[in-house]
TrEMBL record:
Cellular component, GO, one term: Golgi apparatus
Position of the signal peptide: 1-24
SUPFAM superfamilies per the UniProt record, alphabetical: Nucleotide-diphospho-sugar transferases (SSF53448)
GO biological process: cell wall mannoprotein biosynthetic process; protein N-linked glycosylation
InterPro entries: Glyco_trans_15, Nucleotide-diphossugar_trans
Protein name from the UniProt record: Glycosyl transferase
């Protein structure tokens, strides 16, 4: 048995708990039972003492090492096996490899959120959902970013819900601010006259600019290959039984999404023309197998379709690419984040559609997801049967942008496909209070 328990040598476990493990399982407990005890009670104690020791030991280890329930179950299984020769010494890496079959995670990734201290309750709901549905099995770290220091209440409130590593970061003035080239007077006029969601908000515009051009540059994300963006108050309807990071990496995918909508066009009145100006200067940056067709209506005009970025899983090499960085700098200089209200969703979506191959974008049809006001049930009756998701609440599969995405992608991958016929309602983005 001790050969299976080499990792115990590195843990500060009380010696008393280890002594029963050093001798044969049948005779071992007897040494802890006084001879004066009646035979009936002595047999009962001998019968249940190993189980008691196992429970105490597993609980103690969990408290000191933050093991997951899956690891605790594995430890209990190991403890219940027949005796084996005495253990030899092992390195800590060998111990980690034993209880994490793949050793180090195959993908350097994290769950990342830009939140406020007042979002604690909603963020706790999201973490609880993600842990139950996915991360308790995969243990990816969390990174929380804020434009002000996080309170101790917020830090404690999220840490208590996960055994994964949790980091907290603050934004600098460059990434969370208004560039010096923005005309303040013009901006104030825009805020007073805007009649679209968040039209009068400074912070919402700063958030969109940060998510568009700076989040991937934050030092806490420097070593990541992928990130999964999360937000407060969301729901996941299904158990996530596979690792989407690994899936994307193994399949060469750069951008993964769940919900597609059309934008409030007043917020992006000049975004497409500004984009076309950039493309005219850098035609070589556009992928030959792009998804530009998805962004245009049948008349060739920008249709406002975009991936909802409150859920996105991204290979960060895309955001770090020369093409994306040059595109963001062009948009930032144009001032549309402030003079209009360009969102990070249309910016990310246009960039993905133009600079990536169509085959590098992926719609996670099998993920059930809810963001306030919009729900998406997974496609397919077999998948839905494993989820808690009301199909009557889910309407995005038939939306104009998702239908057009699937048809446009198919036409890129199969040039012989017929011209798509567009059906289904046009769903506008739903404003989120903030």
């Amino acid at each position: 048995m001790l050969a299976q328990m080499r990792w115990l040598l590195l843990l500060p476990v009380p010696p008393l708990l280890l002594l029963p493990l050093a001798c044969p399982a049948v005779n071992c407990p007897a040494m802890f039972v006084p001879r004066t005890t009646s035979s009936r009670y002595r047999r009962a104690i001998l019968k249940y003492l190993p189980t008691l020791v196992i429970g105490i030991l597993a609980g103690y280890i969990a408290g000191t090492r933050n093991l997951t329930l899956q690891e605790i179950s594995q430890i209990k299984y190991e403890l219940s096996q027949p005796d084996a020769p005495a253990c030899d010494h092992a390195s800590e890496q060998e111990i980690l490899d034993q209880y994490h079959p793949h050793g180090q995670k195959p993908v350097k990734a994290a769950l990342v959120a830009l939140v406020r201290n007042t979002d604690l309750l909603g963020m706790r709901q999201t973490i609880r959902q993600i842990e139950d549905r996915f991360n308790s099995r995969f243990n990816y770290p969390y990174i929380f970013l804020n434009d002000v220091p996080f309170t101790e209440e917020f830090k404690a409130g999220v840490r208590i819900l996960t055994s994964a590593n949790v980091s907290f970061g603050e934004l600098d003035s460059e990434s969370w601010g208004m560039p010096e080239w923005i005309d303040r007077e013009r901006f104030e006029v825009v805020k007073r006259t805007a009649r679209y969601p968040h039209g009068g908000s400074d912070s919402y515009r700063k958030m969109c600019r940060f998510q568009s051009g700076f989040i991937h540059k934050h030092p806490l994300l420097a070593d990541l290959e992928f990130y999964w963006r999360i937000e407060p108050d969301v729901e996941f309807f299904c158990d996530q039984e596979y690792d989407p990071f690994v899936y994307m990496k193994e399949n060469g995918l750069k951008y993964g999404w769940v919900i597609g909508m059309t934008e409030f066009m007043d917020t992006v009145a000049t975004l497409w023309n500004t984009t076309m100006g950039f493309i005219a200067e850098h035609p070589g940056m556009v992928s030959p197998a792009n998804l530009k067709r998805w962004l245009l209506d049948d008349a060739g005009n920008y249709n406002g379709c975009h991936f909802w970025t409150n859920f996105e899983i991204v290979d960060l090499s895309f955001y770090r690419s020369p093409e994306y960085e040059a595109y963001f700098q062009h948009l930032d200089r144009a001032g549309g984040f402030f003079y209009e209200r360009w969102g990070d969703a249309p910016v990310h979506s246009i960039a993905a559609a133009l600079f990536l191959n169509a085959s590098q974008t992926h719609w996670f049809e099998d993920i059930g997801y809810f963001h306030p006001a919009v729900a998406k049930c997974p496609s397919g009756s077999n998948i839905r049967s494993k989820c808690v998701c009301d199909p009557q609440r889910s309407f995005v599969e038939k939306s104009y942008c998702i239908v057009r995405y699937k048809e446009s992608k198919q036409m890129v991958l199969d040039p012989e496909a017929t011209e798509p016929v567009h059906t289904g309602p046009v769903y506008m983005a739903v404003p989120v209070v903030g």
